[in-house]
Every structure is written in structure tokens, then in C-alpha cells.
Amino acid sequence: MKALITGITGFAGSHLAEYLLSLQVEVIGTVRNRSRMNHITHIEDKVRLLECELRDPFSVETLLTQEKPDYIFHLAAQSFVPTSWNSPADTIYNNVAGQLNIFETVRRYQLPTRIQIACSSEEYGHVEAHETPITEDNPLRPLSPYAVSKAAQDYLAYQYFKSYDIHTVRTRTFNHTGPRRGEQFVTSNFAKQIAEIEKGVRPPTVHVGNLQAQRDFTDVRDVVKAYWLALEKGEAGECYNIASGSCITIEQMLHMLLDMSHVSIDIVPDPARMRPSDVEILLGDTSRFEKQTGWKPQIPLEQTLHDLLQYWRERV
């Protein structure tokens, strides 16, 4: 069994590589010359890293026809919502073009490859209170360029399954976090600020944006197990929510982190951290995926946040 992970050097990609290696799967991953390798230095000798520019059709064709992976986990993307407001065209092009090149190569060469597309709960966008918990049948009302790009990826995967019978499975993952989460993401940003305060390298204030948004957090180590099961047991052409099934506000999450610290810290609102529009609530219904695969998240949020804070304590 050979699995290709696009975005292997990223947050979820590195955890997925670890998990696949534990299953004795041969792991290859795409990198570029500017890829940061710090997340996979501990497993670099156990995987094969291959140069590939996903936006270049020839580069993708060369890689896939030479390697012929059994599974493709397509995680590579511009995944930070605020960046998509500043660079909407780049976000949409990057996230759609790479996937399209993968699909076209698999189609033209009739590769018997199963492909998981890492979609996002951000696609649901504006959700009415009576629509929660959100099922896969809920309307998509994206509220950011990033969310629009993920909806495009989602629909492309469905279209290539229906048009060409390519084995695609779409996973709409809700908020996930844990060690190695990029510092621009809210849980990791708060954890890093707290770790820096504890070390005395910044004043005892945490700068925050909108604290009232409600989010469904899952540990990344549970999420990557779901990605594997999506291709092992998921139905081709289907989409599945990946979530914990419980919801807290960003403020509650922040106080969980603050309670793990031994120092007194003030909370300071920062207008620069506010978005032009924000999704008020994201709470996922995972019953379809659980029924299909038997997956359930195992790691409680308290443990996830503890591990994330420890990760930053070791690095600041």
C-alpha cells in the first residue's frame, strides 16, 4: 500500500504521515523548495519526499504516473481564512488548480487511485441556529474567499466522481488543533502568547479577536485517523463531516488555556484580529461518518489544549 500526502510538511499532513507509518503504509509526500521541514524532521528518514508544484500540470503528471499511489490524501492548500481576505485570487487559484491537476492526471491515465479531499466546515458559512448540529445536507453559504475555494474543491470532487467515476471522498473537517498547529490559528496563537508570557518575553496580556464565535474542536490526531477511514471504509462520491459533535465559544477555549497557566493574564481585544464577516457557529453532526466507518474522536479537548500549550512551552 502506497499513500501520497500532499502538504505532508504541514500541520495535519505531518500527523497523518505519522499515523500511516504506524500502519506500515509506504508514505510519499509532495514538497517544494521553500517547504518548511520542521514538522517532519523526526520521520524524514521514514518517508519519501518528492518535489512537485501542484499548480503545474506537468509536475503533477510526472509524479503520479511514476509513483501510481493507491491512496492520495490531498491536504495541500492555503488554509488560513484571514489570508484569503488579503489574497482572494491566490487562495482560490492555489486551492483549486492543484486539485484539478491531480484529477486530470488520474482521469487521463485511468489510475485506480482513491482520493481524499480535505474540505472544510467553513463551506457551511452562514448557519441558522435551527440548522445545528450541521449535517452534510445543510446548504453551503460560504462567508470568506477561503470557504469559497473549499466549496469549489468539494464540488469538483463530486463532479469528477459523477463524470468519470474517480474514487473521491470529501471530508468536511470542523476546527481541529493540537501540537504543531500554525501560530496564526486561534488555539495555537493563544497558547503561544501564554507560553511567551510565562517565559517573561511579553507583557501579561493576551490579544484577542471575536471571542463569541462558537466552534467544534477535534484533536488533529483523531482527525487523521478519520482521513484514513474515509478512504478505507467511506463510500466513493460521498462527503462526511469530521467533528467532535460538541461546541464551545472561543472565549471558553481561551479560559481553558488560561486555567492551565500559573501566571495572571489579562485579555485585551484587538480590532486588527476581527474579520470582515465571521461564522457565528460551527457544530458538526458526524452520524453519517460514524455509521459508515465506526470512527469516534477519542482525545478530550482538555488534553488537546494541554498538549498544544506544552508544545509552545518547549519552543519559546
Automatic annotation (TrEMBL):
PANTHER family, A to Z: DTDP-D-GLUCOSE 4,6-DEHYDRATASE-RELATED (PTHR43000)
Pfam families found in the cross-reference section: GDP_Man_Dehyd
Superkingdom as given in the UniProt entry: Bacteria
The protein, known as: GDP-mannose 4,6-dehydratase
Residues in NAD(P)-binding domain copies: 4-307
InterPro entries in the record: NAD(P)-bd_dom, NAD(P)-bd_dom_sf
